[in-house]
Write a structure and sequence with these properties.
Elements lengths: L2 E9 L4 H13 L4 E9 L1 H8 L3 E4 L6 E3 L1 E4 L10 E3 L4 E5 L3 H6 L3 H4 L8 E4 L2 H11 L4 E2 L14 E6 L8 H13 L4 E7 L11 E5 L5 H5 L3 E4 L8 H8 L4 E4 L14 E4 L24 H9 L1
Parallel strand pairs: 1-2, 1-5, 2-3, 4-6, 5-7, 7-8, 8-9, 10-11, 10-13, 11-12, 13-14, 14-15
Length: 301
């Protein structure tokens, strides 16, 4: 099996070159013995790379020998002590080099390596721009992708409410823990008039209240209202009007509107007794009309 050494000077926490690095190693490791040589890197990136290939910290005092060498990042220290036995020094092109030239950044960022004798561009446009500026005639290969992964539904939750004890703030926090425990992925947008409240979870987003809520409501999978007391909550009626099922507390007012498994789910007051895995199955709602206009006309005469 041929060996490949990939030089990547600084492995950042996120970026296209880092995505290429991981994807290339993940896919091509079954064909080649791959080692990444790096100068510095974010630990989360290094952790996932260590699981699939070998990593070596670059030291200019050490010599590294591979059959093929790929230089994935073109800034930082020049990797003078990395050698290709087959004299194949491949340099990657990921960016629009014409834009970098026009903005005066190309020669700040691009460090030429005299050993380079092959260039690969990630896409036709990237190759064209590299050839225009550096005249290096890249071989074009589109971005390498991971095998298609099995995906899980990310639930889009919405709450339009105050955030306090009556509105079930403590129950909301417990609900988050329960979803986390079951591995349920979610994004929860909370629109509230309550100021100064934060929830320490990266998938919970607290927004200022708004009166034009309909688009945000209709784009959600569930409205969540875990109050300890309600009259007849508008947010639930408005949700089912837009065919958005609701997750509500087992209290009068909410259960007047929501039938378990039909147009949402009813959560016991002892929230730990709720089978949270049920919410993975999103009910399909029928048209809802509350006939209140007709009732008012009949009442007022």
């Amino acid at each position: 099996m041929k060996s490949i050494g990939i030089y990547h000077s600084v492995i950042s926490k996120i970026g296209g070159v880092e995505t290429f690095l991981y994807n290339f190693c993940y896919v091509m490791r079954k064909h080649y013995d791959i080692t990444i040589i790096y100068c510095s890197g974010r630990e989360l990136q290094l952790q996932r790379l260590r699981k699939i290939v070998k990593l070596e910290l670059y030291d200019s005092k050490d010599r590294f020998d591979f059959d093929i060498v790929i230089r994935n990042s073109v800034w930082g220290e020049i990797p003078d002590k990395i050698y290709s036995k087959e004299n194949r020094y491949i340099e990657m092109r990921h960016a629009n080099y014409k834009y970098l030239l026009d903005s005066g950044r190309l020669y700040e960022e691009y460090k030429k390596w005299d050993r380079t004798n092959e260039v690969v561009g990630c896409g036709t446009f990237v190759s064209q721009m590299s050839d225009t500026v550096l005249h290096d005639h890249p071989y074009t290969i589109r971005n390498i992708l991971l095998p298609k992964q099995k995906t899980n539904k990310v639930l889009r939750l919405i709450t339009c409410s105050r955030l306090d004890r009556d509105k079930g703030m403590d129950r909301m926090l417990e609900f988050i823990k329960m979803m986390r425990k079951e591995g349920i992925k979610f994004e929860w947008n909370i629109y509230t008039s309550t100021e100064g409240i934060t929830i320490d979870d990266e998938d919970v987003h607290i927004h200022r209240h708004r009166l034009d809520i309909w688009d945000y409501l209709a784009s959600s999978d569930y409205t969540v209202l875990l109050s300890v007391t309600e009259g007849l909550p508008y947010t639930v009626q408005e949700s089912i009007q837009y065919k958005v099922p609701c997750i509500v507390s087992d209290i009068p007012g909410c259960t007047e509107l929501i039938t378990n498994g039909i147009n949402g789910y009813v959560v016991p007051m002892d929230i730990t007794k709720f089978d949270i895995t049920k919410i993975k199955k999103i009910p399909k709602l029928k048209e809802y009309k509350n006939n209140s206009e007709e009732k008012w006309k009949e009442y007022l005469g």
